[in-house]
Design brief:
Strand 3 and strand 4 form a beta hairpin. The chain is 6% helix and 64% strand. It is built from 1 helix and 19 strands. The chain has an 8-stranded antiparallel beta barrel with strand order 1-2-3-4-5-6-7-8. It has an 8-stranded antiparallel beta barrel with strand order 9-10-11-13-14-17-18-19. It has 2 domains: 135 residues, no CATH class; 134 residues. It has 280 residues and is mainly beta.
């Protein structure tokens, strides 16, 4: 239920962004969506291999869901300046309801997607100056992951495809909010709708970033069942991340994470944002 509500909220966010477009912009009536979105750019100088860093910017997407075409105004930051790349010949290929893969005949390095279901967008391209930019909505999702939970007595519990990881990037503070959704602590007989950790340090790498720290406080929402009342939801801080380490590969669209949930459960997780499609 929580994820359903989450999806409704993210779609609502996109609808809000569309409705706030300028009066002279295309309207939704003919299947044309105009979205001005705050995104985070991950930048690498491909010539020197130097990592430039991550910075917040705003991009504009005009998507025609009837003609399956789109245009983009992409802003990217280099040093203290800002440059813009406009692409008007984007092909928007529908892959499933609300999800489009984006390519451009004139910009061979460009590839991306827009997912109205998850409220997620990501674009990857290389500028004429040799700067590779991966522009993404600040919330980076890994929707279907495999997780192995090992307990103190060495017994293990494995979940396949049901646990979701979300990293809310905050470039100004060099940190992220980490959310783990839908994981089970079998020994404590707890099903966690979410475990949230704030202000977890982020380190930018050539292919993405790492997120990690020690003794991180968390707020967990877990679900319990009682025959007479059904499901109930409670909060607890009993499951801090004693250690949390995650490697996010934006180029390969892959997550590797290891962390300790509370003091008795160690989790190893792997996954991709969209396992059914090629990397973005």
């Amino acid at each position: 239920m929580k994820k359903i509500l989450f999806l409704i909220a993210t779609v609502g966010l996109f609808m809000s962004a569309i409705s706030c477009s300028d009066d002279d912009e295309p309207k939704r009536g003919d299947g044309v969506f105009t979205v001005n979105t705050t995104m985070v750019n991950h930048m690498v100088d491909m010539g020197s291999d130097a990592v430039i860093g991550i910075a917040t910017t705003r991009n504009k997407l005009v998507l025609d869901t009837v003609k399956h075409k789109a245009s983009l105004e992409l802003n990217y930051n280099i040093g203290q300046g800002e440059s813009q790349l406009k692409i008007d010949d984007i092909v928007a290929t529908p892959k499933r309801l609300g999800f489009y893969e984006l390519t451009s005949p004139s910009q061979g390095s460009f590839k991306g997607y827009v997912d109205f279901n998850e409220g997620s967008m990501r674009y990857r391209y290389t500028t004429t100056g040799g700067i590779r930019v991966i522009s993404m909505t600040p919330e980076v999702f890994f929707l279907k992951t495999d997780n192995t939970v090992t307990y103190d007595d060495t017994t293990k519990a494995t979940t396949v495809g049901n646990t979701m990881y979300q990293f809310n990037l905050e470039p100004a503070s060099g940190s992220a909010i980490v959310k783990v959704m839908g994981i089970v602590h079998a020994k404590d007989v707890e099903y966690f709708n979410s475990i949230t950790a704030n202000s977890v340090p982020v380190t930018v790498t050539r292919n993405g970033f790492t997120i990690g720290g020690e003794n991180i406080k968390t707020n967990a929402i877990y679900r319990s069942y009682v025959d007479s009342t059904g499901a109930t939801f409670s909060q607890t801080d009993k499951y801090p991340f004693k250690v949390f380490n995650a490697t996010v590969n934006l180029v390969g669209d892959h997550l590797d994470a290891t962390y300790m949930m509370g003091s008795s459960a160690t989790v190893v997780a792997t996954g991709r944002t969209y396992p059914d499609y090629t990397s973005y």
